[in-house]
Amino acid sequence: MKFLESLTEEKVEEFYLKAGSRFGEVVSYIYSKVGDLPENFGKMLKKFNSIFETWELFERQYVELGYKACDLEALIEYGACNSPFYGNLRIKRKEGEAPVYYAQKYKEKFLEAIRSGIDFSKGVLTKPRGTLSFPYLPEALK
Predict the structure, then answer these.
(1) Which one of 14, 16, 97, 127 has the largest count of C-beta atoms within 10 Å of its C-beta?
(2) How sure is the predictor about 133, in pLDDT bands with cuts at 50, 70 and 90?
(3) Do 20 and 54 meet the contact criterion of CB atoms below 8 Å apart?
(4) pTM greater than the 0.85 cutoff
């Protein structure tokens, strides 16, 4: 992946934050229990895998630069709520500190649960919204 190798740290950070905030926006809609689904929800669901994989890719690149990954709660708040970003950008891990990959944790713990309730090819929920029950995501990933 010559493209990734050619990116500066600043560009990796920029792409990571954009990908993470987009993923946070989509996840916030999936987990929402109130209100109507937005008009573009189906379109976003169709792109869910691509959005997730982009976030996962740039999180890995960012962490490989020696930084701590931003927690998913910060990305959700930033992407979905249009709030200022309060995550931990540009915080280097201490020597010997193991990296944390939130995208990997998300994939391991929740992706299959979400996929069981959503038809991504059609962009629709396959179970009534009230039956899609997941633990509060950011807390469960810690």
Answers:
(1) 16
(2) very low
(3) no
(4) no
- Give just the sign of the alpha carbon dihedral 71, 75, 76, 81: positive
DSSP letter assigned to residue 129: G
Amino acid sitting at position 38: P
**Side chain identity at residue 141, one-letter code:** L
CB atoms < 10 A from the CB of 49, how many?
12
Q: Is 16 left (phi over 0), alpha (psi -120 to 50) or beta?
A: alpha
- Mean of per-residue pLDDT scores for the chain: 76
Contact 93, 61 (CB under 8 A): no
Cα 105 to Cα 42, 71, 72, 108: the distances in Å are: 25, 11, 10, 5
Q: 123 with 43: CB under 8 angstroms?
A: yes
pLDDT of residue 3: 76
Q: Would you place residue 120 in the very low, low, confident or very high pLDDT band (cuts 50, 70, 90)?
A: low
C-alpha count within 13 angstroms, C-beta hemisphere, residue 25: 21
What is each CA distance from 124 to 3, 25, 45, 51, 128, in whole angstroms?
Answer: 34, 17, 8, 17, 10
